[in-house]
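stage 2 :: seqdesign
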């Protein structure tokens, strides 16, 4: 598919690109694509089996959501470094082990954002100064309660649900049959 690209909007966080694509049947169509840097989401679990969440206001949902710590990968930073920085900024903890769980596109129908996912264990107090525009409350929840919250729909954040799916076999012991 060939394409022409025009910047329709350029903001501080993302740009909207209008793309004219030649479709396989010969027609042309204009698509809007959100270009945004990649990001990380971290699943921090302490030695007691508690997960560290952040609660913050989200413009898209017009509500405060409970979600896993996450953030954008800054220019010149790799995903691992971004994950190390984000958990220190958002929950004040460092991780002795930070293992990749894989990743996924957030909304590939219209966005370039790729989410890199990590499991953080061996947590210890290691805070960094949070971003000045973030107002975050940290909440610890036992894994048993997390499972109930997922099942009941109390965790509606998509990246949080996806990361739990990627990590489930590692964090929940197999049940004997």
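stage 2 :: out
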């Amino acid at each position: 598919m060939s394409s022409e690209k025009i910047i329709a909007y350029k903001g501080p966080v993302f740009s909207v690109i209008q793309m004219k694509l030649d479709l396989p049947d010969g027609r042309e169509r204009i698509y809007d694509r959100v270009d945004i840097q990649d990001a990380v989401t971290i699943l921090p679990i302490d030695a007691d089996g508690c997960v560290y969440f952040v609660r913050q206001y989200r413009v898209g949902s017009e509500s405060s959501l409970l979600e896993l710590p996450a953030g954008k990968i800054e220019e010149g930073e790799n995903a691992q470094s971004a994950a190390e920085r984000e958990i220190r900024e958002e929950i004040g903890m460092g991780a002795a082990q930070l293992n990749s769980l894989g990743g996924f596109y957030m909304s590939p129908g219209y966005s370039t954002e790729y989410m890199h996912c990590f499991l953080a264990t061996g947590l210890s107090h290691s805070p960094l100064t949070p971003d000045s525009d973030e107002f975050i409350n940290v909440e610890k929840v036992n894994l048993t309660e997390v499972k109930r919250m997922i099942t009941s729909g109390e965790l509606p954040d998509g990246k949080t649900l996806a990361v739990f799916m990627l990590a489930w076999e590692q964090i929940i012991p197999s049940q004997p049959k």
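stage 3 :: structure notes
- Residues 3-35 form one domain.
- The chain has two domains: 3-35, 37-171.
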